[in-house]
Every structure is written in C-alpha cells, then in structure tokens.
Amino acid sequence: MTKRRAQSSASTGYRTLEPISPSLAASAFFETYVAKRQPVVIQGLLDDEGFSCTKWADSNLEYLSKKAGHVTVMVEPIHPSANQFGTDVERIPMPFTDFLASLQKPDGPHHYLTTQYASDEAREEDDSERSGGESITTLPPPTNALTDDFPTVPRLLENLSLQQVNLWLGKSKEGSSSGLHHDFHDNLYVLLSGSKRFVLYPPSEHKHLYPHGALDNFHSNGLISYKDAPVRSDGLPVRVAARARVKAIERKLEELATANGNGKGKGKDKERKKWMAMHDEALDELAKVTLDAADEDDFGLGEGEEDDFDALMAGLDGESREPGNGGSSKRAIDDEDDDEDEDEDDGPVLGHDDEDDDDDFSPSGEPSSFSRIPTHTLHTHLGLPTTAQAPASSSSSAYPDLKKTCKPYVVHLKAGEMLYLPASWWHEVTSTSPSEGSADVHMAFNYWFYPPTGKTFEEPYEDTLVWEYLKATGGKIVAEESTFESGGQKKRQGDDLREDEKKKIKR
C-alpha cells in the first residue's frame, strides 16, 4: 500500500497521508500528531466501549428517524449556480424525520445537514426538551438525542476539551463540495457512509489562499484569528478568556479566605495581595477587551461569545444529561440570569460551514475563514475531477498566489475510516454517496476540540489558571453579564466593570 500511495503522490500535484491504527495509545497519538499539528488518516472507527454510530446508516435511516426524528434541524440547500455548499444560501428549518425522508427521494438536489446553532429559529421553537433559556451547543440536534451511541469525549483525544459534536448528512451521487475553508478547532472526523475527498493545505498557506477575512493573528500552534472575531491560540474568544480569568482568580481568593479565616499573618497577607494584584490586572484586561469590542461594532461581547463560554462549560462537564430527552445536555442557569438571557443568541462565536465551525462573516458577507478561490478553480489547478461550476465572473488568473502554495494532501476517506485534522488546516471536501450498500447517503460524525497550546499530554493547554478553572466548574457556571443591545451600553459596562467586580471581593 505504501508503494502505491507513493507512486500516486509522485505522479500528481499533491501528497498523501499514511494511515494508522485506531488502537494507538492516546498519549502516543498526542505526541505524534496533535502536538505536531499533523493530520492523519485512521483506518478504523473509535474503539470506545459503547460507540455504535454505524447503525445510523441503516437501509432506510429508520434508526435515526425513530431515535431523533422529533427534533428540528436546520438544513442547507445547495447553491444553485456554484453547485456547492458552504455559501450564503439561507438555511431551512424542518423536522429531522422529514429531512431523512427527503433523502430517500431519488431526484435531487438534496439538502445538507450541517452544524446547528442556538440562534437557529428551529432550536428556539423546539423547546420540548429544553428549559431555562437558550440551550448549549455542545450537543446540538440531532446529536442531543443520540448520545447513547457515542462517547462524549473519545479515548483517542481524551486529554482535550470538547467544543462541539455534529452530524453531517447529505446525498450526492456526483459529489458535492464544501468549498475551501478552515476550522477553528481540532477535528476528529468519523465517516459512517459514502466517501469524502479532502484537499488539505497547512495553516501557513493562508497568505496564498485568499481568505475573506482580515487576518488578526497567526498563532504559533497554527490557529488563524480574524479581526472580526479574535481568538486566542487555544480557540477561546479573547473576551471569554478574559472573563474566565477574572472568575478563576475570584475563586482562588474565595478559597484563600476560607482556608485562612481572617487572613492574618504575613505569609497569608502576601499570598492574598499577590492574587489581589492579579485580580486587578485581570479586571483591567477584561475592561479593555470590552471597550475594544464596543469600538469595533455595536455588540461588544456578542451573544455568540457568551454562548460559546456556556457551551465550553457543558463540554468540560462531560455528561450533564437529563432523562427523557435522549441524553441532551443543558446548561445550568441562575434564576437572576433568566431575564437577561432572553435576547436572541447568535450561537458559538466560531460557527457555521459545511464540515466547518465558522460563523464569523467578513464585509463581503461570506465567512471569514472561507477562501475566495472557487472550487472549480481549485480542482482544475490540482487536476482533480470536479462537479463544481466554473465561475462566470473570474478565472484562475485572478488567483495567481494559488500557484505559490505547497503541494496539498489529497485524502480519499472511506466509510469506516477517520481523519484527524488540526485547527486551521485548510480543507475542501467533496462528498459522494455510495453507489450501493445500506444507505445511499454520505454521513459523518465529528468532534471538535479546543486546539492545544501545550506540548505535553498531561497539560495540553498552557494557560493552566483558566483551563483548570473551566474544568473544575464544568457545566455549573453561567455568564453573569447580560447581553447588551448597543455599543453605548457595552461602553458603559467597560467603564463600570472594574469597580463592579472589585466590590465582589472583600479587600
């Protein structure tokens, strides 16, 4: 197999990936691939006890319909002229069972199930399984009704923090494309039915791939951040991280107060003063990023960032499940926050695409993390078969830097295989339904994880203060701040925040 793959690579303009076994130890997988930010094909599915997602692809999709057909999902129509997904075409709400039935029809084009968000009108209306405000997005529908069939965090990536899980489901005999883009989280992609052809470029090629967004930062671990929604290297939105740091220090100060009584004694005073100084610095930083956000737009911390914080909490909590809903996770909400959380929620700050988690849009109206290069142009450049339509308004000469890119990897993923893809690796995915077999759909299940910044399996995230706090509090912490409707209100919060927070700490 190695020889055949090498010959294929030598005769084309792209490289291939050597597959590995799914039985590799988690620590070895981290050291060899995750820490080195190297994608890899895994020949086989998850070996976790209880993983049974293969039954989702039965002959008539009956299991999915019975288990999760009652939930409402948002599905994406294919772009009528570009013949691809991942565009600005408006998504459509429908019961999951109706979507599954539509895939049984022979004639297309068929809609595509992609990432689901708390902002989706369908999710707001589907309240039979939810209570206490907006639901989290860690287990969006229909995965919230299928949690008995997969581990919340798979063994292979057990040391990383979960951001979200998703089901990808569509139908295309000819092949449909996602468009070239990148994600903001590490991706473990589990193919259950059909085939997927991935074109992969490393994050460093952003300078040649014409992203819609304006670059804010290219982090050392490869994560790309854009000016319209800056994120840290661990994938946390800047403001979410600043708020978490304040809460982590306040928690430490409370622990010190409990342990030290009145805090008398030089040693105790010195320790407390150190943390008080850190608290002052953290409040200054939170106020600064609040004002910076208000200067950039009218929403400051968008509702999406607040939702991302709560989704992270639930992901770290592991299995916060309630009976009667198929294992749906829910975030805990304090009584005083109920009224504040009624504003419309824009979902995770890093949200939507096909095979992608980006929902931050550039001035062009397209997601910042999507490339301007048309799919047809990319395929033609690489000599790959394509079903994408040639753009009428541009040609390959409009993207001269495409010729400057390194040779990409091209991966032909089959049902029963997985792909690990580090955050911000550019990828274009062509999905094809099987010509024969149990279900004539292409179906995948994926996990997104916050990208690690540390180099050790034991401590994958360098900001231990923030991440230890997030893990310790699990799904039990909810943002205390309300969502503000105007930049003026957000500016007021920036001015008053430091004093408001300081009042909470007994000095």
Brief overview:
With 507 residues, the protein is of the alpha+beta class.
Describe, in plain words, how this protein is organized in 3D.
This protein is of the alpha+beta class. It has a domain at 13-227 and 350-364 and 406-449: Jelly Rolls (Sandwich). It is built from eleven helices and 14 strands. The protein has helices spanning 2-10, 26-34, 62-68, 96-102, 121-125, 238-260, 266-296, 303-317, 375-382, 464-473, 487-502, and strands at residues 40-42, 72-76, 92-95, 112-113, 162-170, 176-177, 186-193, 195-201, 215-218, 224-226, 409-414, 418-421, 426-432, 442-449. The strands form four sheets. The protein has a five-stranded antiparallel beta sheet with strand order 1-12-7-14-5. Strands 6-13-8-11 form a four-stranded antiparallel beta sheet, with no helix packed on it. A three-stranded antiparallel beta sheet has the order 3-2-4. A hairpin with a 5-residue loop joins β9 and β10 (224-226). α6 (238-260) runs antiparallel to α7 (266-296), α6 (238-260) packs across α10 and α7 packs antiparallel against α11. It is globular. Mean pLDDT is 78; it is low at 1-10, 121-136, 298-306, 318-359 and 475-495.
